[in-house]
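User: What would this chain look like folded?
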Amino acid sequence: MWGNAFLLSVLYLVVGIVVESIRRRYRSPFFERLSMALDSLPARALELTHGLEPLREAYFNGRVTDIGVRVIFGIVTVAVIFLLALVVGVLMAGLRWAVLRAATGRGGPPRA
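Assistant: Here's the prediction, encoded as structure tokens.
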């Protein structure tokens, strides 16, 4: 579970770095939209936790640079991916426990 979450996080960050590098160099509308799509996950997570508005204010006041926003978005993305992996892992462990319990006959339907 942790290995998959780590691999997915690394892949997301590498794709983000590549897209951002291409976007800054070529200014293509496609890469602008792709960058916005990649930023939507951390931006939404920050918005749900009421962290986006202070970040936006700090950015517009010059207290946080472009790189700082990217680092914060990267950290939030990794945290969201690990949280999702943890939730899915717990749900799957619970489902596995229920299936094994039913298969052994303890608390399951009567056996024929």
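The two ends are 37 Å apart (CA to CA). If you want, I can go into more detail on any region.
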